[in-house]
Design goal:
This protein is of the alpha+beta class. The chain has 20 helices and eleven strands. The longest helix is centred in the C-terminal third of the chain and has 46 residues, at 499-544. The termini are far apart.
Length: 548
Protein backbone atom coordinates (compact mmCIF):
# COMPACT_ATOMS: atom_id res chain seq x y z
CA UNK A 1 0.00 0.00 0.00
CA UNK A 2 2.80 2.33 0.85
CA UNK A 3 4.47 1.58 -2.52
CA UNK A 4 1.18 2.23 -4.33
CA UNK A 5 0.68 5.54 -2.56
CA UNK A 6 4.12 6.76 -3.61
CA UNK A 7 3.49 5.76 -7.25
CA UNK A 8 0.07 7.46 -7.14
CA UNK A 9 1.63 10.67 -5.84
CA UNK A 10 4.31 10.59 -8.55
CA UNK A 11 1.67 10.16 -11.24
CA UNK A 12 -0.38 13.04 -9.85
CA UNK A 13 2.72 15.21 -9.68
CA UNK A 14 3.57 14.49 -13.31
CA UNK A 15 0.02 15.17 -14.43
CA UNK A 16 -0.29 18.44 -12.56
CA UNK A 17 3.20 19.46 -13.65
CA UNK A 18 1.93 19.94 -17.19
CA UNK A 19 -0.56 22.56 -16.01
CA UNK A 20 1.91 24.46 -13.86
CA UNK A 21 1.99 28.14 -14.78
CA UNK A 22 4.60 30.70 -13.90
CA UNK A 23 3.38 34.13 -12.86
CA UNK A 24 4.47 37.12 -14.93
CA UNK A 25 4.75 40.32 -12.92
CA UNK A 26 4.44 43.80 -14.41
CA UNK A 27 3.26 47.36 -13.91
CA UNK A 28 1.63 50.22 -15.82
CA UNK A 29 3.12 53.73 -15.72
CA UNK A 30 3.29 57.08 -17.47
CA UNK A 31 6.41 57.97 -19.43
CA UNK A 32 9.41 59.61 -17.82
CA UNK A 33 9.96 63.01 -19.42
CA UNK A 34 12.55 65.77 -19.84
CA UNK A 35 11.39 69.36 -19.35
CA UNK A 36 13.75 72.34 -19.59
CA UNK A 37 16.74 70.08 -18.99
CA UNK A 38 15.20 68.41 -15.92
CA UNK A 39 14.24 64.75 -15.69
CA UNK A 40 10.85 63.79 -14.23
CA UNK A 41 10.17 60.10 -13.53
CA UNK A 42 6.89 58.53 -14.71
CA UNK A 43 4.08 57.74 -12.30
CA UNK A 44 2.36 54.39 -11.73
CA UNK A 45 -1.19 54.00 -13.10
CA UNK A 46 -3.91 52.15 -11.23
CA UNK A 47 -7.09 50.52 -12.59
CA UNK A 48 -5.68 49.93 -16.08
CA UNK A 49 -7.10 46.82 -17.79
CA UNK A 50 -4.49 44.45 -19.23
CA UNK A 51 -5.98 41.83 -21.57
CA UNK A 52 -3.71 38.86 -22.27
CA UNK A 53 -4.59 36.73 -25.31
CA UNK A 54 -6.69 33.69 -24.38
CA UNK A 55 -6.69 34.74 -20.71
CA UNK A 56 -8.97 36.72 -18.43
CA UNK A 57 -8.23 40.44 -18.16
CA UNK A 58 -6.43 41.76 -15.08
CA UNK A 59 -6.45 45.24 -13.51
CA UNK A 60 -3.46 47.16 -12.24
CA UNK A 61 -3.41 47.73 -8.49
CA UNK A 62 -3.03 51.04 -6.63
CA UNK A 63 0.76 50.94 -7.21
CA UNK A 64 0.25 50.16 -10.92
CA UNK A 65 1.35 46.52 -10.55
CA UNK A 66 -0.39 43.50 -12.05
CA UNK A 67 0.29 39.79 -12.55
CA UNK A 68 -1.07 36.91 -14.58
CA UNK A 69 -0.24 33.21 -15.04
CA UNK A 70 1.79 32.11 -18.08
CA UNK A 71 1.01 28.44 -18.75
CA UNK A 72 3.46 28.12 -21.63
CA UNK A 73 6.74 29.76 -22.53
CA UNK A 74 5.24 32.80 -24.24
CA UNK A 75 2.23 35.11 -24.27
CA UNK A 76 0.90 38.19 -26.07
CA UNK A 77 -1.22 41.19 -25.11
CA UNK A 78 -4.51 41.90 -26.86
CA UNK A 79 -5.50 45.17 -25.27
CA UNK A 80 -4.44 47.66 -22.59
CA UNK A 81 -7.03 50.27 -21.62
CA UNK A 82 -7.78 53.02 -19.14
CA UNK A 83 -10.29 55.84 -19.50
CA UNK A 84 -8.58 59.03 -20.70
CA UNK A 85 -5.25 57.30 -21.42
CA UNK A 86 -3.60 55.92 -24.57
CA UNK A 87 -1.04 53.18 -24.98
CA UNK A 88 2.24 54.86 -25.87
CA UNK A 89 3.60 51.99 -27.98
CA UNK A 90 0.95 50.13 -29.97
CA UNK A 91 3.54 47.49 -30.92
CA UNK A 92 3.24 45.89 -27.47
CA UNK A 93 -0.06 44.45 -28.69
CA UNK A 94 0.20 41.12 -30.54
CA UNK A 95 3.96 40.94 -29.89
CA UNK A 96 5.14 37.55 -28.61
CA UNK A 97 6.66 37.80 -25.13
CA UNK A 98 8.64 35.15 -23.29
CA UNK A 99 8.11 34.69 -19.57
CA UNK A 100 10.70 36.64 -17.59
CA UNK A 101 11.50 37.18 -13.95
CA UNK A 102 11.83 40.87 -14.86
CA UNK A 103 8.57 42.86 -14.71
CA UNK A 104 6.68 43.66 -17.91
CA UNK A 105 6.57 47.47 -18.14
CA UNK A 106 3.61 49.00 -19.98
CA UNK A 107 3.70 52.74 -20.66
CA UNK A 108 0.49 54.76 -21.07
CA UNK A 109 -0.11 58.50 -21.13
CA UNK A 110 -2.97 60.88 -20.46
CA UNK A 111 -4.45 61.91 -23.84
CA UNK A 112 -4.48 65.63 -23.06
CA UNK A 113 -0.89 65.51 -21.75
CA UNK A 114 0.28 63.59 -24.80
CA UNK A 115 -1.31 66.11 -27.15
CA UNK A 116 0.17 69.03 -25.17
CA UNK A 117 3.60 67.37 -25.37
CA UNK A 118 3.13 66.85 -29.11
CA UNK A 119 2.32 70.52 -29.73
CA UNK A 120 5.26 71.66 -27.59
CA UNK A 121 7.70 69.35 -29.38
CA UNK A 122 6.37 70.40 -32.80
CA UNK A 123 7.01 74.07 -32.02
CA UNK A 124 10.52 73.26 -30.73
CA UNK A 125 11.56 71.10 -33.69
CA UNK A 126 10.16 73.56 -36.25
CA UNK A 127 12.03 76.38 -34.53
CA UNK A 128 15.27 74.36 -34.59
CA UNK A 129 15.06 73.50 -38.29
CA UNK A 130 14.31 77.14 -39.08
CA UNK A 131 17.32 78.34 -37.08
CA UNK A 132 19.55 75.75 -38.76
CA UNK A 133 18.33 77.00 -42.14
CA UNK A 134 19.31 80.56 -41.23
CA UNK A 135 22.78 79.44 -40.16
CA UNK A 136 23.34 77.54 -43.40
CA UNK A 137 22.13 80.54 -45.43
CA UNK A 138 24.53 82.78 -43.50
CA UNK A 139 27.39 80.36 -44.18
CA UNK A 140 26.64 80.38 -47.90
CA UNK A 141 26.44 84.17 -47.89
CA UNK A 142 29.83 84.36 -46.18
CA UNK A 143 31.38 81.98 -48.73
CA UNK A 144 30.05 84.13 -51.56
CA UNK A 145 31.34 87.36 -49.97
CA UNK A 146 34.77 85.73 -49.59
CA UNK A 147 34.68 84.72 -53.28
CA UNK A 148 35.00 81.06 -52.30
CA UNK A 149 31.94 80.23 -54.40
CA UNK A 150 30.55 81.90 -57.50
CA UNK A 151 27.27 83.81 -57.62
CA UNK A 152 25.80 81.02 -59.72
CA UNK A 153 26.93 78.32 -57.26
CA UNK A 154 25.60 80.39 -54.37
CA UNK A 155 22.10 80.59 -55.86
CA UNK A 156 22.22 76.89 -56.77
CA UNK A 157 23.10 75.89 -53.19
CA UNK A 158 20.64 78.38 -51.70
CA UNK A 159 17.84 77.07 -53.88
CA UNK A 160 18.64 73.46 -52.89
CA UNK A 161 18.77 74.45 -49.23
CA UNK A 162 15.35 76.13 -49.33
CA UNK A 163 13.79 73.22 -51.22
CA UNK A 164 15.19 70.83 -48.62
CA UNK A 165 13.72 72.99 -45.87
CA UNK A 166 10.31 73.00 -47.56
CA UNK A 167 10.43 69.21 -47.82
CA UNK A 168 11.49 68.76 -44.20
CA UNK A 169 7.90 68.42 -42.99
CA UNK A 170 8.11 64.63 -42.62
CA UNK A 171 11.31 64.85 -40.54
CA UNK A 172 9.61 67.24 -38.13
CA UNK A 173 6.58 64.97 -37.90
CA UNK A 174 8.70 61.83 -37.34
CA UNK A 175 10.87 63.47 -34.69
CA UNK A 176 7.86 64.83 -32.83
CA UNK A 177 6.25 61.38 -32.75
CA UNK A 178 9.51 59.66 -31.77
CA UNK A 179 10.42 61.97 -28.90
CA UNK A 180 6.81 62.22 -27.73
CA UNK A 181 6.85 58.44 -27.18
CA UNK A 182 10.23 58.20 -25.44
CA UNK A 183 10.06 56.91 -21.89
CA UNK A 184 13.05 58.66 -20.31
CA UNK A 185 12.81 56.31 -17.32
CA UNK A 186 14.31 53.64 -19.56
CA UNK A 187 17.24 55.77 -20.78
CA UNK A 188 20.51 56.34 -18.95
CA UNK A 189 21.65 59.79 -17.88
CA UNK A 190 23.88 60.40 -20.92
CA UNK A 191 21.18 59.49 -23.44
CA UNK A 192 18.69 61.66 -21.59
CA UNK A 193 21.05 64.61 -21.95
CA UNK A 194 21.64 63.87 -25.64
CA UNK A 195 17.91 63.62 -26.40
CA UNK A 196 17.24 66.80 -24.43
CA UNK A 197 19.92 68.65 -26.41
CA UNK A 198 18.49 67.52 -29.76
CA UNK A 199 14.88 68.49 -29.03
CA UNK A 200 15.99 71.86 -27.67
CA UNK A 201 18.21 72.71 -30.63
CA UNK A 202 21.60 72.34 -28.92
CA UNK A 203 22.88 70.21 -31.78
CA UNK A 204 26.59 70.92 -31.27
CA UNK A 205 26.31 69.90 -27.63
CA UNK A 206 24.40 66.75 -28.63
CA UNK A 207 27.07 65.86 -31.18
CA UNK A 208 29.78 66.48 -28.58
CA UNK A 209 28.04 64.20 -26.06
CA UNK A 210 27.66 61.51 -28.70
CA UNK A 211 31.38 61.76 -29.41
CA UNK A 212 32.11 60.98 -25.76
CA UNK A 213 30.89 57.47 -26.57
CA UNK A 214 33.85 57.19 -28.89
CA UNK A 215 34.70 57.46 -32.59
CA UNK A 216 32.17 55.48 -34.64
CA UNK A 217 34.80 53.80 -36.81
CA UNK A 218 36.83 52.79 -33.76
CA UNK A 219 33.72 51.56 -32.00
CA UNK A 220 32.85 49.44 -35.02
CA UNK A 221 36.41 48.14 -35.08
CA UNK A 222 36.07 47.18 -31.43
CA UNK A 223 32.69 45.61 -32.15
CA UNK A 224 34.21 43.50 -34.93
CA UNK A 225 36.93 42.34 -32.56
CA UNK A 226 34.31 41.19 -30.10
CA UNK A 227 32.47 39.41 -32.88
CA UNK A 228 35.64 37.58 -33.96
CA UNK A 229 36.30 36.61 -30.34
CA UNK A 230 32.80 35.15 -30.13
CA UNK A 231 33.47 32.99 -33.16
CA UNK A 232 36.56 31.56 -31.48
CA UNK A 233 35.18 31.22 -27.98
CA UNK A 234 31.81 29.44 -28.05
CA UNK A 235 32.28 28.34 -24.48
CA UNK A 236 31.78 31.90 -23.30
CA UNK A 237 29.42 32.86 -26.11
CA UNK A 238 26.49 33.98 -24.00
CA UNK A 239 28.45 36.54 -21.98
CA UNK A 240 30.49 37.73 -24.95
CA UNK A 241 27.42 38.18 -27.16
CA UNK A 242 25.79 40.23 -24.43
CA UNK A 243 28.77 42.61 -24.55
CA UNK A 244 28.58 42.64 -28.34
CA UNK A 245 24.87 43.45 -28.34
CA UNK A 246 25.42 46.25 -25.84
CA UNK A 247 28.14 47.81 -27.99
CA UNK A 248 26.07 47.37 -31.13
CA UNK A 249 23.13 49.10 -29.52
CA UNK A 250 25.40 51.87 -28.29
CA UNK A 251 26.85 52.41 -31.78
CA UNK A 252 23.40 52.19 -33.32
CA UNK A 253 22.23 54.89 -30.95
CA UNK A 254 25.16 57.10 -31.98
CA UNK A 255 24.47 56.49 -35.66
CA UNK A 256 20.75 57.20 -35.38
CA UNK A 257 21.20 60.42 -33.43
CA UNK A 258 23.88 61.56 -35.90
CA UNK A 259 21.38 60.75 -38.66
CA UNK A 260 18.85 63.03 -36.95
CA UNK A 261 21.40 65.80 -36.46
CA UNK A 262 22.57 65.75 -40.09
CA UNK A 263 18.99 65.59 -41.35
CA UNK A 264 18.12 68.66 -39.28
CA UNK A 265 21.20 70.37 -40.74
CA UNK A 266 19.90 69.53 -44.25
CA UNK A 267 23.01 67.40 -44.93
CA UNK A 268 21.21 64.45 -46.54
CA UNK A 269 24.26 62.50 -47.73
CA UNK A 270 25.67 62.33 -44.20
CA UNK A 271 22.23 61.47 -42.82
CA UNK A 272 21.86 58.63 -45.31
CA UNK A 273 25.35 57.35 -44.47
CA UNK A 274 24.52 56.96 -40.78
CA UNK A 275 21.07 55.41 -41.20
CA UNK A 276 22.51 52.84 -43.61
CA UNK A 277 25.53 52.32 -41.37
CA UNK A 278 23.19 51.43 -38.51
CA UNK A 279 21.29 48.95 -40.72
CA UNK A 280 24.58 47.29 -41.68
CA UNK A 281 25.53 46.93 -38.01
CA UNK A 282 22.93 44.22 -37.53
CA UNK A 283 21.28 42.71 -40.60
CA UNK A 284 19.19 40.56 -38.24
CA UNK A 285 17.39 43.60 -36.79
CA UNK A 286 14.23 44.04 -38.92
CA UNK A 287 13.39 47.46 -37.47
CA UNK A 288 16.77 48.91 -38.46
CA UNK A 289 16.35 47.49 -41.96
CA UNK A 290 12.85 48.96 -42.19
CA UNK A 291 13.98 52.45 -41.18
CA UNK A 292 16.89 52.42 -43.64
CA UNK A 293 14.56 51.03 -46.28
CA UNK A 294 12.04 53.83 -45.68
CA UNK A 295 14.63 56.62 -45.80
CA UNK A 296 16.42 55.32 -48.90
CA UNK A 297 13.15 54.26 -50.56
CA UNK A 298 11.72 57.77 -50.41
CA UNK A 299 15.04 59.49 -51.16
CA UNK A 300 13.78 60.92 -54.47
CA UNK A 301 10.13 61.34 -53.45
CA UNK A 302 9.01 64.84 -52.35
CA UNK A 303 8.19 64.79 -48.65
CA UNK A 304 5.70 67.60 -48.56
CA UNK A 305 2.25 68.54 -49.66
CA UNK A 306 0.43 67.50 -52.80
CA UNK A 307 3.69 67.18 -54.84
CA UNK A 308 4.08 63.60 -53.58
CA UNK A 309 1.01 62.50 -55.51
CA UNK A 310 2.43 63.48 -58.89
CA UNK A 311 5.95 62.16 -58.42
CA UNK A 312 7.30 59.73 -61.01
CA UNK A 313 10.79 58.31 -60.59
CA UNK A 314 13.32 58.17 -63.42
CA UNK A 315 14.48 54.71 -64.57
CA UNK A 316 17.95 55.18 -63.04
CA UNK A 317 16.30 56.02 -59.71
CA UNK A 318 13.99 53.00 -59.94
CA UNK A 319 16.89 50.62 -60.53
CA UNK A 320 18.84 52.17 -57.66
CA UNK A 321 15.84 51.96 -55.31
CA UNK A 322 15.06 48.35 -56.30
CA UNK A 323 18.62 47.25 -55.53
CA UNK A 324 18.46 48.93 -52.13
CA UNK A 325 15.00 47.50 -51.43
CA UNK A 326 16.09 43.95 -52.24
CA UNK A 327 18.89 44.20 -49.70
CA UNK A 328 16.84 45.59 -46.83
CA UNK A 329 13.70 43.55 -47.55
CA UNK A 330 15.59 40.23 -47.63
CA UNK A 331 17.34 41.12 -44.36
CA UNK A 332 14.14 42.23 -42.62
CA UNK A 333 12.10 39.21 -43.73
CA UNK A 334 14.82 36.78 -42.70
CA UNK A 335 14.40 37.64 -39.03
CA UNK A 336 10.89 39.06 -38.87
CA UNK A 337 7.82 37.52 -37.24
CA UNK A 338 4.63 37.28 -39.31
CA UNK A 339 3.36 40.62 -38.06
CA UNK A 340 6.68 42.35 -38.82
CA UNK A 341 6.69 40.73 -42.30
CA UNK A 342 3.39 42.42 -43.09
CA UNK A 343 4.89 45.80 -42.14
CA UNK A 344 7.86 45.08 -44.44
CA UNK A 345 5.57 44.26 -47.36
CA UNK A 346 3.40 47.34 -46.72
CA UNK A 347 6.41 49.64 -46.81
CA UNK A 348 7.89 47.92 -49.89
CA UNK A 349 4.55 48.20 -51.69
CA UNK A 350 4.23 51.91 -50.86
CA UNK A 351 7.72 52.65 -52.19
CA UNK A 352 7.19 50.62 -55.38
CA UNK A 353 3.88 52.39 -55.97
CA UNK A 354 5.51 55.81 -55.98
CA UNK A 355 8.06 54.60 -58.53
CA UNK A 356 5.36 53.32 -60.90
CA UNK A 357 5.84 49.59 -60.17
CA UNK A 358 2.08 49.12 -59.79
CA UNK A 359 1.84 45.41 -60.58
CA UNK A 360 4.38 44.46 -57.90
CA UNK A 361 2.91 46.94 -55.42
CA UNK A 362 -0.62 45.58 -55.91
CA UNK A 363 0.54 41.98 -55.43
CA UNK A 364 2.25 42.92 -52.17
CA UNK A 365 -0.80 44.79 -50.83
CA UNK A 366 -3.07 41.84 -51.69
CA UNK A 367 -0.67 39.44 -49.98
CA UNK A 368 -0.83 41.65 -46.88
CA UNK A 369 -4.64 41.56 -46.83
CA UNK A 370 -4.59 37.78 -47.20
CA UNK A 371 -2.09 37.38 -44.33
CA UNK A 372 -4.02 39.83 -42.12
CA UNK A 373 -7.31 37.99 -42.71
CA UNK A 374 -5.66 34.64 -41.96
CA UNK A 375 -3.77 35.57 -38.79
CA UNK A 376 -4.51 39.11 -37.62
CA UNK A 377 -8.12 39.74 -38.54
CA UNK A 378 -8.56 42.25 -35.69
CA UNK A 379 -5.48 44.29 -36.55
CA UNK A 380 -7.45 47.07 -38.20
CA UNK A 381 -4.49 49.43 -38.45
CA UNK A 382 -2.72 47.07 -40.89
CA UNK A 383 -5.95 46.43 -42.83
CA UNK A 384 -6.47 50.18 -43.14
CA UNK A 385 -2.95 50.69 -44.55
CA UNK A 386 -3.35 47.86 -47.07
CA UNK A 387 -6.73 49.04 -48.42
CA UNK A 388 -5.48 52.63 -48.61
CA UNK A 389 -2.44 51.40 -50.54
CA UNK A 390 -4.51 49.43 -53.05
CA UNK A 391 -6.69 52.48 -53.61
CA UNK A 392 -3.55 54.54 -54.26
CA UNK A 393 -2.30 51.98 -56.83
CA UNK A 394 -5.60 52.05 -58.71
CA UNK A 395 -5.59 55.86 -58.61
CA UNK A 396 -2.18 55.97 -60.27
CA UNK A 397 -3.35 53.35 -62.82
CA UNK A 398 -6.34 55.63 -63.57
CA UNK A 399 -8.80 52.94 -62.48
CA UNK A 400 -10.79 55.51 -60.56
CA UNK A 401 -13.89 53.43 -59.72
CA UNK A 402 -11.72 50.81 -58.00
CA UNK A 403 -9.66 53.52 -56.30
CA UNK A 404 -12.81 55.07 -54.81
CA UNK A 405 -14.11 51.65 -53.70
CA UNK A 406 -10.92 50.73 -51.81
CA UNK A 407 -10.50 54.18 -50.25
CA UNK A 408 -14.09 54.06 -48.97
CA UNK A 409 -13.38 50.61 -47.51
CA UNK A 410 -10.31 52.02 -45.76
CA UNK A 411 -12.38 54.93 -44.40
CA UNK A 412 -15.00 52.49 -43.09
CA UNK A 413 -12.29 50.53 -41.24
CA UNK A 414 -10.83 53.74 -39.82
CA UNK A 415 -14.15 55.18 -38.69
CA UNK A 416 -15.36 51.94 -37.09
CA UNK A 417 -12.21 50.56 -35.51
CA UNK A 418 -9.39 53.09 -35.24
CA UNK A 419 -9.07 55.97 -32.79
CA UNK A 420 -8.62 59.42 -34.34
CA UNK A 421 -4.89 59.59 -33.64
CA UNK A 422 -4.14 56.26 -35.35
CA UNK A 423 -4.84 57.10 -39.00
CA UNK A 424 -4.68 59.83 -41.58
CA UNK A 425 -8.22 59.78 -43.02
CA UNK A 426 -7.35 62.88 -45.00
CA UNK A 427 -5.29 60.73 -47.40
CA UNK A 428 -8.40 58.72 -48.30
CA UNK A 429 -10.50 61.87 -48.81
CA UNK A 430 -7.85 63.32 -51.12
CA UNK A 431 -7.70 60.15 -53.23
CA UNK A 432 -11.50 59.92 -53.49
CA UNK A 433 -11.82 63.59 -54.47
CA UNK A 434 -8.99 63.40 -57.00
CA UNK A 435 -10.42 60.17 -58.50
CA UNK A 436 -13.82 61.80 -58.95
CA UNK A 437 -12.20 64.79 -60.68
CA UNK A 438 -9.97 62.73 -62.97
CA UNK A 439 -12.82 60.51 -64.15
CA UNK A 440 -14.72 63.66 -65.17
CA UNK A 441 -17.04 64.25 -62.20
CA UNK A 442 -15.80 67.79 -61.59
CA UNK A 443 -18.74 69.07 -59.53
CA UNK A 444 -18.94 65.84 -57.49
CA UNK A 445 -15.21 66.11 -56.73
CA UNK A 446 -15.43 69.71 -55.51
CA UNK A 447 -18.63 69.02 -53.59
CA UNK A 448 -17.00 66.06 -51.79
CA UNK A 449 -13.75 67.90 -50.97
CA UNK A 450 -15.53 71.08 -49.83
CA UNK A 451 -17.74 69.07 -47.44
CA UNK A 452 -14.63 67.38 -45.99
CA UNK A 453 -12.87 70.76 -45.68
CA UNK A 454 -15.89 72.20 -43.85
CA UNK A 455 -16.01 69.27 -41.40
CA UNK A 456 -12.29 69.70 -40.61
CA UNK A 457 -12.79 73.43 -40.02
CA UNK A 458 -15.57 72.68 -37.54
CA UNK A 459 -13.29 70.34 -35.60
CA UNK A 460 -10.57 72.98 -35.57
CA UNK A 461 -12.88 75.40 -33.72
CA UNK A 462 -12.33 73.28 -30.61
CA UNK A 463 -8.51 72.90 -30.25
CA UNK A 464 -8.84 70.14 -27.65
CA UNK A 465 -10.69 67.98 -30.18
CA UNK A 466 -8.32 68.40 -33.12
CA UNK A 467 -7.17 64.89 -34.16
CA UNK A 468 -3.64 64.10 -35.20
CA UNK A 469 -4.61 63.54 -38.81
CA UNK A 470 -5.14 67.32 -39.18
CA UNK A 471 -1.31 67.46 -39.15
CA UNK A 472 -1.36 65.69 -42.49
CA UNK A 473 0.88 64.83 -45.41
CA UNK A 474 -1.70 65.95 -48.00
CA UNK A 475 -4.06 68.91 -47.56
CA UNK A 476 -7.66 68.84 -48.85
CA UNK A 477 -7.60 72.59 -49.50
CA UNK A 478 -4.34 72.25 -51.42
CA UNK A 479 -6.01 69.68 -53.67
CA UNK A 480 -9.00 71.99 -54.22
CA UNK A 481 -6.51 74.74 -55.12
CA UNK A 482 -4.73 72.45 -57.60
CA UNK A 483 -7.87 71.06 -59.24
CA UNK A 484 -9.54 74.46 -59.49
CA UNK A 485 -6.51 75.80 -61.36
CA UNK A 486 -7.03 73.02 -63.98
CA UNK A 487 -10.63 73.95 -64.79
CA UNK A 488 -11.41 75.50 -68.16
CA UNK A 489 -13.18 78.61 -66.84
CA UNK A 490 -14.44 79.46 -70.33
CA UNK A 491 -16.63 76.34 -70.25
CA UNK A 492 -20.10 77.74 -69.41
CA UNK A 493 -21.62 74.24 -69.28
CA UNK A 494 -19.50 73.36 -66.24
CA UNK A 495 -20.16 76.66 -64.45
CA UNK A 496 -23.89 76.61 -65.11
CA UNK A 497 -24.18 73.05 -63.83
CA UNK A 498 -23.51 74.06 -60.24
CA UNK A 499 -22.29 77.61 -59.81
CA UNK A 500 -22.48 77.48 -55.97
CA UNK A 501 -20.01 74.61 -55.64
CA UNK A 502 -17.51 76.24 -57.98
CA UNK A 503 -17.83 79.57 -56.18
CA UNK A 504 -16.96 77.83 -52.89
CA UNK A 505 -14.00 76.16 -54.61
CA UNK A 506 -12.90 79.56 -55.93
CA UNK A 507 -12.94 81.02 -52.39
CA UNK A 508 -10.68 78.21 -51.12
CA UNK A 509 -8.46 78.64 -54.20
CA UNK A 510 -8.01 82.36 -53.49
CA UNK A 511 -7.31 81.72 -49.79
CA UNK A 512 -4.63 79.14 -50.63
CA UNK A 513 -3.14 81.47 -53.28
CA UNK A 514 -2.94 84.29 -50.73
CA UNK A 515 -1.35 81.94 -48.18
CA UNK A 516 1.32 80.93 -50.69
CA UNK A 517 2.05 84.55 -51.59
CA UNK A 518 2.30 85.49 -47.89
CA UNK A 519 4.65 82.57 -47.26
CA UNK A 520 6.92 83.66 -50.13
CA UNK A 521 6.88 87.26 -48.92
CA UNK A 522 7.82 86.17 -45.38
CA UNK A 523 10.72 84.16 -46.76
CA UNK A 524 11.93 87.17 -48.74
CA UNK A 525 11.78 89.32 -45.60
CA UNK A 526 13.67 86.72 -43.57
CA UNK A 527 16.36 86.53 -46.23
CA UNK A 528 16.66 90.34 -46.32
CA UNK A 529 17.07 90.41 -42.53
CA UNK A 530 19.78 87.76 -42.75
CA UNK A 531 21.60 89.76 -45.45
CA UNK A 532 21.41 92.96 -43.38
CA UNK A 533 22.72 91.19 -40.28
CA UNK A 534 25.52 89.58 -42.28
CA UNK A 535 26.45 92.89 -43.90
CA UNK A 536 26.56 94.51 -40.46
CA UNK A 537 28.86 91.78 -39.12
CA UNK A 538 31.17 92.06 -42.14
CA UNK A 539 31.40 95.84 -41.63
CA UNK A 540 32.14 95.46 -37.92
CA UNK A 541 34.82 92.86 -38.68
CA UNK A 542 36.39 95.15 -41.28
CA UNK A 543 36.53 98.02 -38.80
CA UNK A 544 38.05 95.83 -36.10
CA UNK A 545 40.79 94.74 -38.51
CA UNK A 546 41.42 98.33 -39.59
CA UNK A 547 40.44 97.74 -43.22
CA UNK A 548 38.55 101.06 -43.33
Amino acid sequence: MKRLSIITLLILFCLTGHSYAQTQQGYVKTKGRMMNGKYYAGKRISDATVQVKDRSAVRSRADGSFSFPVPGKSYSLQQVQKQGFVLLDQDVLYRQYTYSSNPLVIVMEDKAQLEADRRRLKEQVESITKEQLRRREAELEALKEQNKITEEKYHELLDKLNKDYDQNEQLVKDMVEQYNKIDFDQEDELNRRISDCIINGRLDEADSLLNTKGDVDKLIEQLNKHHAANEQARATLSKSEAAEDHERQNIADVCYKKFQIYKMRHMDDSAKYYIELRADLDSANPNWQLEAMEYVGFEFVPNNSINKWFFRGEQIEINYIKNKLNKYVSRALKNAHDLDSINVYLLEAEILCYYGEYFDALNLYEKCISDINDKYRNNYSLSYQAYTGIGRVYFFEKKYDKAILYEKTALEIANNHLSRDMHCKNTNHVLIGHSLFDRGDTIAAFNYLINISDSICKECQNPSSIPQYIDREVDVNQLIFLLYSKINHNSHSVIDKDRTVLEKAKIIYEIEMQAEEEMLENKRKELDEIKKELSKRVSESAVSFGLY
